[in-house]
Predict the structure.
Amino acid sequence: MADDEVVSSSAGDSSQTTTTESDSNKNDVPEMQNVDTGLRKTQGQALKQKIDLLLKATADAPIMKQKKWSVEADRKVSSIIQFIKKYLKLEAHESLFLYVNQSFAPSPDQIILNLYECFGADGKLILHYCKTQAWG
């Protein structure tokens, strides 16, 4: 904006053009802020939401006594992997693989809500875990 002010003060004819550009920019900015605010509200509501996870053992993985868990929607896959490792008392060097729909391994930075929206069924997201690579 400082550049616009310098241009408008140095030339009389271009000040009208600059003012028009500034006016159009002013109209664009509130729209973008409204969209951004709307996204924050949507994300804020999602953060309070809980997702039901059904964790199923595959191959050589130990079976968990409790298979159904409710987690915050903003949790990342990496935190779920860490939780399972701690629950099963696995060593730090032991690997744990997590799969969605028995077919692909989600990225560790993927958010649970995104997976639930794409692959959730019957109000829950089913994740399979194992200590060796099984699918994908």
User: Anything to note?
Assistant: Residues 1-41 have pLDDT under 50 and may be disordered.
